[in-house]
Amino acid sequence: MPKTLTPAQELLLGANTLRMLAVDAVEQAASGHPGLPMGAADYSFLLWHRFLRFDPADPSWADRDRFILSAGHGSMLLYGLLHLFGFDLPLAELQRFRQWGSRTPGHPEYGHTPGVEMTTGPLGQGFAAGVGMALASRMAAARFADDQFSPISHRVYAIVSDGDLMEGVSYEAASLAGHLRLGNLIYLYDDNCITIEGATGLAFSEDVEKRFGACGWQVQRVDGHAPDEVAAALVSAREETERPSLIMARTRIAKGSPGKEGSAAAHGSPLGSAEAAATRRALDWPEEPFHVPAAVRALCGARVEELTAQSASWRESFARWQERNPDRARLWDRMWQKKIPEGLIPTLLEAAGTNDGATRSLSGAVLQAAAAAIPSLAGGSADLAPSTNSWIKESDAIAAGSFLGRNLHFGIREHAMAAIQNGMALYGCFIPFGATFLVFSDYCRPAVRLAALMKLQTIYLFTHDSIFVGEDGPTHQPVEHLSALRMIPNLQVIRPADGIETALAWGAALERRHGPTALILSRQKLPRIQRDPAFGTDLQLLAGTIVFDTAGNDLRAILLASGSEVHLAMAAAQLLQADGVQTRVISVPCLERLLALSPEERERLIPPTIPRIAIEAGRGALWHQILAHDDLFIGIETFGASAPEEAIAEQFGFTPQQVAARIRIFLHL
After folding, report:
1. Residues paired with residue 557 on neighbouring β-strands, in sequence order
2. For the chain, N or C: smaller number of CB within 10 Å?
3. pLDDT score at 540
C-alpha cells in the first residue's frame, strides 16, 4: 500500500477492513452471516465516513442521524462500523462475536451495544420502525424549531435487504411514509439478488422501483461498489425533502471471496478456513486476524473529530435556543424525559367518572385527561378511532406537511402501526399508542414482541375484547388472543372491569418506562363496581382486588376473573350466597402483576387452602399458574359464533345461572 492514499483508496481500504472483520468474526464464532457485510461494505463505509452524523462519545445525542441495520443478520457490518468510528465497542468484543455475555450478539440488540438504535433480525421490522423514527423526528422538529435554529434537523438511514422488502410490513410502512412525505428518510437497499434458498428470482420478481415510486418515494439505482455513484445518490436523497428515498444499491454478496462471491453459500455460514485464506490473498490482506490498518484508524479518527466539532457546535446553538425559548426548553425537557406529573392517577380517576360504560368508552375519556397532562403522548388507530375511542380531541391530526398534531391515521395497517410505534418510542420524546380490535392483535404481534424485547414504552388499546362482540361472529371474536399476549415476556396486559380499573390501567401504562402495555377493553357496557369507600388507588391493586366477599368464616370458594367476567362472577356469587355458599370474588385486571406478588402477598389475597375458580371468556393459559391442578377454569376452548350477545352467553355457558351451577358441581354441592 502506498504511504499516501487517494480518497478512493481510503474508502476501499476502509471497506476491506469491514469485510475482513466480518470474515474473521464469523470464522472464529463458527457461526454467522458474512455475505451481507462483505457485499455492503463499500457503500456502508462511505455512508459513515462522509454522510452520517453522530457522536460516539454521546450515542444518545438528540440530533444524531439514526442508522438502522434492518437486515440484522449482517450484524458484523454494524459492529465493525461502531468499532472503527469510536463507539465503546473494543476489538475484543468483535473477537467474542455471538458468545455468551459479549456486546456483539448474533443480531443487534438495542440497549445492549452502544450505538445500536434498535433490535433487528425479524425482517421488515427495522424498515417499519425507521418510518416511526422519521415521523417522530418531523413531529419533534415542528414543536421545537424557531426562526433561527432547529434542534432537530437530522435524518434516518437504514440498510434494508431483499428479505425486508418481501415482508408485508415493509410495504405497509412504505405506503404510509410516502403518504406523509417523510423526506428525512433515506434507505439503502442492498440489492444482492440472493436469499437463503438461492437467487431472489425464485420467488421475487416485482419491479421494486415502480412499487416504491407508486408509494411516493424517490428511487435511484446505483452500483453499490461504486462510491462516486452512491455518494451522488446520497446527496440527491438529502436534497429531496418531500419524498422518502430508496437507493437501490446492486451489490455482490460476499464481495471479495473468490469462491463464494455472488453465492447463497455465503449468506448464513462461515466462508471456511480455506476460503477465508483465499479471500485474504485476493484482497492483499495480512494474515493477522482482526487486522485494522493504521491508515483506517487515522481516517476514522479524523472523521470522528469532525463529528465531535459538529455536535459541540449544535450544543452551543442549542444553549442559545434555550435562552431564547424558555417555554419550549421546558417542553423539550418534559417530552424527552417523558415526565409523568404528580397526581396523575387522581386526575385519570376523575376523568373515568362514576358511571357505567364500556371500558373502551371509559378509556377514551381517560385518554383526554392523560393527553392534557402528558405532552409526549401521541398515537392513533388502524382506521378504528371511532370504535376504539382513541382520538385526542384537543389536538389535530398528523398529515403531510403538518406535524404539530398528536393524532395519527395509520390506515388499515396494524402491523406497520405497531412497528412504527416502536420507532417512535426508540426515537425518544414520544409515548406512542396504537389502537385496534383485540382479534387483530395477531397482525401487531411481531412488533409487540420486539417492543417487549427492547423494553419500550408503547401502549396498545385492544378493544372488542371477547366473544361478546356478538353478531360480528368468530372472525371478530377473540378467544385465544388474551392468552397469546400474556405469553409474551415483559408485556403488561391489563383487562379492566370498570372505570376505576381503566384509569389505573392507563396510569400503569404511562408510568411503566421499561416495557409495553396492552389495555384490553370491552365493546359492551359494564356496570360500575360498588367498592369499599376505603378502596385505594395504588397501581398494585391491578394485581387483584376483592370486589365481593360474603360474610362469615365458611369460605367455600374464591372466584377470580378479569374484565366483563368480573361482573359475571359477582352475579354467580350472589346466586351461590342465596344458597348459603360463601364465596369471594377477586378482580384480576393484570395477571402478570398477580404472579409477581410475593407468596405471602398472594396468599393473603387468595388463601391456598380454598378452592379456586377462574372465569374468563377465552382460553386460559396463564390462569393455570394461579390455579392448583384440581381447581376449575371456566373458559372457552372453541371459536365463537355469530349471534346477539345474550345468545352467545347462553350457548357458551356464560350466564350467572350456568356459572353458579358449574361451581356447585365443582364443590360437590
Report:
1. 583
2. N
3. 86
- The pLDDT of residue 135 is above 90: yes
List the strands of the sheet with 407-409, edge to edge.
407-409, 377-381, 431-437, 459-463, 517-520, 492-494
Radius of gyration of the chain (CA): 28
Q: Do 172 and 263 lie in a common domain?
A: yes
Q: Which residue out of 414, 501, 592, 616 is catalytically annotated? A: 414
Owner of C-alpha cell 433490535 = 119
For residues 459 and 556, membership in a common domain is answered with no
596 backbone dihedrals φ, ψ, rounded to 5°: -85, -10
Amino acid identity of residue 267, one-letter, is H
Q: In what order do the strands lie in the sheet with 156-161?
A: 66-69, 156-161, 185-191, 245-250, 218-223
Helical (H) or strand (E) element with 333: helix 326-336
Question: Which position has the grid cell 495480512?
Answer: 286
Residue 2 in this model has a pLDDT that exceeds 80? no
Count of H helices and E strands in the chain? 24, 18
Residue 553 pLDDT class (50, 70, 90 cuts): confident
pLDDT digits (tens, 9 = 90+) for 173-227: 999 999 999 999 999 999 999 999 999 999 999 999 999 999 999 999 999 999 9
640 burial (CB, 10 Å; 0-12 / 13-18 / 19+) is: buried
Give yes or no: residues 40 and 152 share one domain: yes
pLDDT digits (tens, 9 = 90+) for 574-586: 999 999 999 999 9
Active site residue 501: no
CA terminus-to-terminus distance, the chain: 91
Tell me the C-alpha distance between 201 and 146, whole Å: 50
Q: If you average pLDDT over every residue of the chain, what do you get?
A: 96
For the domain that residue 596 is a member of, what is the CATH number?
A: 3.40.50.920
Among the three residues 283, 307, 331, which one is the final residue of a domain in this structure?
307
pTM recorded for the entire structure: 0.97
For residue 45, what are the contacts with CB-CB under 8 A and spacing of at least 6?
A: 11, 14, 15, 17, 18, 81
pLDDT of residue 476: 96
In the predicted model, what is the mean pLDDT of residues 492-511? 97
622 and 503 within one domain: no
Q: Do the Cβ atoms of 1 and 249 come closer than 8 Å?
A: no
Q: Give the integer Cα–Cα distance in Å for 663 and 387.
A: 35
- Give the Cα-Cα-Cα angle 54, 57, 58 (nearest 5 degrees): 65
Three cell numbers, residue 127? 424498515
